[in-house]
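hey team, just a heads up i'm posting the complex here instead of the shared drive bc the drive is being weird again. everything in one block, sequence lines first with there labels, then the predicted structure for the whole assembly after. its two chains so it's a bit long, scroll down
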Amino acid sequence: MRFLINGQAHDLAPDIRTSVLDLLREHLRLTGTKKGCDQGACGACTVLVDGERINSCLALAVQYQDRAITTVEGLPFASGLHPLQEAFIEHDGFQCGYCTPGQLCSAVGMAAEIERGVPSVLTEDLTVETMELTLDELRERMSGNLCRCGAYNGIVDAIAATFGPEKAR
Amino acid sequence: MKEFSYARADDTPSAVQLGNAHPGTKYLGGGTNLVDLMRETIEAPEALVDVTGISQDIEMLPEGGMLIGAGVKNTTVAAHREVRMRYPMLARAILAGASGQIRNMATVGGNIMQRTRCLYFYDGAARCNKRAPGIGCDAVEGFSRYHAILGASPSCIATHPSDMCVALAALEAVVHLEGPAGARTMALNEVHRLPGERPDLETELAPGELITAVELPSLPFVARSNYRKVRDRSSYAFALVSVASALDIGPDGIVRDVRLALGGVAHKPWRAAAAERALIGKPASEENVRAAAEIELAPAQTYRDNGFKVELAKRVIVASLDDLARRAAL
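-- predicted structure starts here --
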């Protein structure tokens, strides 16, 4: 099976039962992506596939051959950290940090959804095509990522500072 | 997880052929439910046929309806311009379900075929007639906050977890199927079964049949419709009670047509047909809506922890139709 991860092709022969999450962590030693619940409830395992965020724990690797998978290790710009990572540091977007890689990938995917005009359950008028990232919208759209430390205020601030309409609050 | 073989279908005929080559084969969509159930060993298919590469289109039908391919992702349906304009209750129902990540993975067909999230179904140490027919049900006398109040049986009080399907029930969507015996269609409202004595049998699909598409009829008045969901936290939680509704009011204030379906209350998405019948031809007053809701909920049977759902369902019906009536009056 061929996998495209962070721009690199890997030819691997994992057990058919392997999830994308276990493929990353156990076969490629890309341990940035975290295993929280392993049942799609916490979002710690969030990665991007062709730019869209998914839960890698619920994804059978065999289904994701030849798709462009981006993990937290693939997020940084050539110059260093991704602007969102800088914002997480700036706004104290974590305590223990275990949920952080998932939060980062999820937020990048979410920003792309806003860009594409994907509505949310809070979108008042579904006929509107331009979505705005209010703080309520941000919390709703990020609800698939739990933080057991409860660093939500910092997380929200960091994401709003990076992708919000006014960039910084 | 038990080992399985895997094949990716290139088109519908090959999917159905692969899906019927061996007993114990299951079709695999986004995997958000099936993979989890396999990991819990509640599901143990011998073969998976990946159908995420087929049935990818959303087509406008000449008579005004819409045909949504079973392989289309939930996010794609909810974000589709025509769905948002013409069937807002469907877009809203999808967006009220799961998380952004899961909606990006889950397919329309898989959403319909997902299984209950009853805690006793998931708990291998509990008795569950779905997992082991005839063994008994620990939910009936257990923690039943999330369980059914309509159409349940002593064998099973589980609910169907889908939000999307509640809107499809209200819309009278038609499910397109392809099986070894050929193609056929089935009303979405006929797809899911009530538990009766056999809660392990959840749908009327024949073994090896594959959902290829969901057809939405042309229903112009649904352009004003909504989906209200009450849950224990404001996002990323299954419904305690949800209501999909649409209301067609004449200039005289009389209800010409109404669509109502409930989620979180039954083993299937619950079309509230009795309430609809009670409302048509009457003014959409709060009193009339409340009376219609009373009729629908009259047969409700409650268990230790879910008695609140009866009054909650009535109130959500009243609030939903009140919202639509106000918007119609604008």
